[in-house]
Specification:
This protein is α+β, with helices and mostly antiparallel strands and 255 residues long. The protein has a single domain, classed as 3-Layer(aba) Sandwich (Aminopeptidase), CATH 3.40.630. It contains six helices and eight strands, in the order E-E-H-H-E-E-H-E-H-E-H-H-E-E. The chain has an eight-stranded mixed beta sheet.
Length: 255
């Protein structure tokens, strides 16, 4: 589970033949033309298959399985989205609510979602949205799905008054530079625009800050298991301490 916007699916899976049917469409993508809906428990098999195929080099224990996806749909369906071309599942964007300590940023996927899949990892009291992954079928790449998934999840942050979005982003481009520089130096070069990373550069262009490198974030030999901590701040967030006597926030008084 990592926030990777345009993943490449391998293998001979056929999600087009599944019984996944989108209901209660929450958005139609302006660029992609796809229909977006909140995930449902009955879609868990197809969602699991999509993520597993998307992260072909990852350790399956680092990914959602069917039971944990059912739990996620039960716990935080409003924060997770599936994209459809008619009735064909083509992408998904998942996440959970967490408390995140930026003074101790180092963590792994299993610190967010337990390896034993005993829970979804969602904490209803959490004040940050943690993006656990975006997966997209290869024939639907470059259609704006990644940006639309980010927009939907940023909308969740605004609706639920969360501080913003945080995630461990994969850095596939580091595979070509890991013998030349540290992961932190690579991230700094991408941040400054001197190097291009197909995932991290995309995330920066979508308003995220690249904070630091995460060691042993997710098992991925190509990049020696490094990832980047990324964060997007919700400028509409209002601290509970700022709530006015009538229960409204100062932001709500603005036109």
């Amino acid at each position: 589970m990592t926030d990777k916007p345009l993943t490449e699916i391998t293998g001979d899976i056929d999600l087009a033949s599944s019984d996944v049917v989108p209901t209660e469409i929450v958005m139609v993508g302006e660029r992609s033309g796809l229909s977006y809906a909140n995930i449902r428990t009955e879609w868990a098999p197809e969602l699991a298959e999509l993520e597993l195929a998307s992260y072909a080099t990852a350790n399956p224990s680092d990914l959602y399985d069917e039971p944990s996806l059912r739990l996620l749909a039960q716990d935080f369906s409003e924060g997770c989205f599936a994209a459809f071309d008619d009735s064909r599942l083509v992408a998904m964007g998942l996440g959970v609510r967490v408390h995140f300590d930026f003074n101790q940023p180092q963590h792994s996927v299993s610190d967010i979602v337990p390896e034993d899949h005993s829970s979804s990892g969602d904490d209803p009291t959490g004040d940050w949205y943690y993006g656990t992954g975006i997966s997209t079928r290869p024939e639907y790449r470059r259609r704006g799905i990644g940006s639309e998934m980010y927009d939907l999840r940023k909308g969740v942050c605004r609706q639920l008054n969360l501080r913003g979005m945080v995630a461990g982003g994969v850095i596939p481009g580091y595979a070509d530079h890991k013998h030349l520089m540290s992961a932190d130096n690579y991230i700094a070069e991408v941040r400054e625009g001197r190097l291009y990373d197909p995932t991290l550069s995309f995330q920066i262009n979508n308003g995220f800050e690249a904070v630091c490198a995460l060691a042993n974030y997710i098992e991925d030999p190509a990049v020696d298991s490094w990832a980047a901590l990324i964060v997007w701040h919700n400028l509409h967030y209002t601290s509970p301490d700022d709530t006015q006597p009538d229960g409204t926030s100062p932001n709500n008084t603005q036109p």
